[in-house]
Design a protein that fits this description.
Blueprint: H1 2-22, E1 32-38, H2 46-53, H3 56-59, E2 62-68, H4 72-80, E3 86-89, H5 92-99, E4 106-113, E5 118-122, E6 138-140, H6 147-158, H7 163-166, E7 168-170, H8 178-183, E8 189-193, H9 196-203, E9 207-211, H10 212-216, E10 222-227, H11 228-233, H12 235-254, H13 257-264, H14 273-285, H15 297-309, H16 319-322, H17 326-331
Parallel strand pairs: 1-2, 1-3, 6-7, 6-8
Antiparallel strand pairs: 3-10, 4-10, 5-8, 5-9
Helix pairs in contact: 2-12, 13-14
Length: 332
């Protein structure tokens, strides 16, 4: 009796194993690949890295492949040539493309940063800084036609400084080499992004004396954009992408700088964690990170005012022509 029972149980167990083996495993949801080209790698773009690190893109069914293209021209070339689906770059680039008569305009659909991201760094420590101290000095600025340079000149003029008359202005150094040039002894003042500005301050190579971001006001400094044809063909993809970004923006807004810095550390392996936290806090405190992806008309007009002031605005473009807020508003 016992032998018969054991045999029956063994057969039942075997049948269950066989049945289990025959059953198909549930298929994992296939993620949609999206190629994103970012203009540079910067803590200024923190919400983007949070969306990747916290898995917000994957939650929306997207596999985002991020490439750093190092420069506005290269980023836009990647987008226009089909080398990228979405670009993270200054909104002014979409205006430049439109002015050249593109049949497939580049549309801004989600804002990432809403202030300038550069800081004024002095070679010497200044206890009581005032902008007129720059007059007659050698100023190492950013590339002509780029948003950092235009915002920088806007702020200087706001403080009564004519950049091309009152300063010894240097603008012919490549973006990637500006910091090295200053460290090598060129210029008494320099306009730098983070974390370079904070690193220089920590190493005693310079001292942060002012923020161009707080001085220039709100503007769509860096936005996610795509060709109109891509957006029409992939509306669900754009919506999912924007939704994931909004989750990240809200997470950043509600989280302290230390935890934010820890989340994005993998994207800045060569940067001291303490510096990352300092930079995140600096950008967060001055409101550089947009808290939602909506690029409103006031910001768009401020951008064009700054471009116009710098003599770089080819033509004034209506907000609705190159900006799509429908998706961002739906997501919010």
């Amino acid at each position: 009796m016992k032998k018969t029972l054991r045999a029956a149980l063994a057969m039942l167990a075997g049948s269950m194993l066989l049945l289990s083996a025959c059953q198909e495993k549930p298929k994992e949801k296939k993620l949609e690949k999206v190629r994103v080209a970012e203009v540079t790698r910067s803590i200024f773009y923190t919400p983007e890295y949070v969306a990747l690190a916290k898995g917000f893109f994957k939650e929306e069914g997207l596999d985002v492949n991020l490439t750093t293209t190092w420069g506005g021209d290269k980023t836009m070339t990647a987008l226009l040539s089909g080398g990228a689906d979405i670009a993270l770059v200054g909104s002014e680039t979409s205006i430049y493309v439109h002015a050249q008569g593109s049949n497939d305009p580049v549309i801004n659909f989600a804002q990432l940063t809403q202030t300038d991201g550069t800081f004024l760094v002095s070679r010497e420590k200044i206890d009581n800084f005032s902008w007129d101290l720059l007059k007659g000095k050698t100023f190492l600025g950013q590339r002509k036609g780029g948003m950092p340079q235009m915002a920088g000149e806007f702020v200087l003029k706001k403080h009564g400084i004519e950049p091309h008359k009152d300063l010894k202005l240097i603008q012919n150094i490549d973006f990637a080499n500006i910091a090295n040039a200053f460290a090598g002894g060129t210029g008494e003042f320099v306009q730098l992004f983070e974390p370079t500005a904070s690193i220089f301050e920590k190493e005693g190579k310079g001292h942060i004396v002012a923020s161009f971001g707080t001085e220039s006001g709100h503007l769509p400094y860096t936005t996610f954009m795509a060709k109109e044809s891509y957006m029409k063909k992939n509306p669900a993809t754009i919506e999912k992408f924007t939704k994931a970004l909004y989750k990240a923006q809200q997470w950043v807004a509600k989280t302290d700088s230390k935890d934010i810095a820890k989340a994005i550390e993998p994207y800045f392996e060569d940067t001291d964690p303490g510096i990352i936290e300092t930079v995140v806090e600096r950008y967060k405190s001055q409101g550089s990170f947009a808290t939602d992806p909506i690029l409103d008309e006031d910001e768009w007009n401020n951008l064009q005012d700054i471009m116009d002031e710098a003599g770089e605005l080819p033509q004034r473009i209506g907000h609705k022509t190159l900006v799509n807020t429908d998706i961002a508003e739906k997501v919010k």
